[in-house]
Amino acid sequence: MSLSGPYDPGNIFAKILRGEAPCFKLYEDAFVLSFMDVFPQSKGHALVVPKAVAARTLLDLPPDHLGPLFAGVQIVARAVEKALRPDGIRLAQFNGAPAGQTVFHVHVHVIPIYEGRALVGHGAAGMANKDELAALAERIAAAV
Ligand code: 5GP
Fold this sequence. Notes:
Layout: H1 12-17, E1 25-28, E2 32-36, E3 46-50, H2 66-84, E4 88-92, E5 108-113, H3 130-143
Antiparallel strand pairs: 1-2, 2-3, 3-5, 4-5
Helix pairs in contact: 2-3
This protein binds guanosine-5'-monophosphate.
The site of guanosine-5'-monophosphate has 12 residues, from strand 2.
């Protein structure tokens, strides 16, 4: 998948946004939905996804969605910080398969960093335990 091309409404984030696939929800407003990454690179790895746009990458996102998307990112990052007390938070955002993108609905990663704990590589993590994800999601959502 290159940077340009048609938006595929069958992508997993589109299904989650339509309620056709489940997620561990953290936060939602008129512009974004945030939920746990099920293949987390670290404890509390969250995703923030813009709603109501058929945008594959950040390059396709209407400019008036940029502010609300990053406002959502900040809300989620603050909640992650409050709930899990990481030592740092990395934001990541991949555009196009050669850059590392695997799901083609634009999104931002919120990845807690814990000193002394190596980060699992992007795309290298196994699926997390669902009970653990649910418990983490509950803590983060409560901290929003
Ligand atoms: P990308 O590689 O496109 O930047 O990020 C896509 C992210 O979505 C990856 O970190 C991957 O672990 C995550 N992911 C893939 N499939 C699912 C899924 O079905 N549910 C959730 N919550 N995350 C997913």
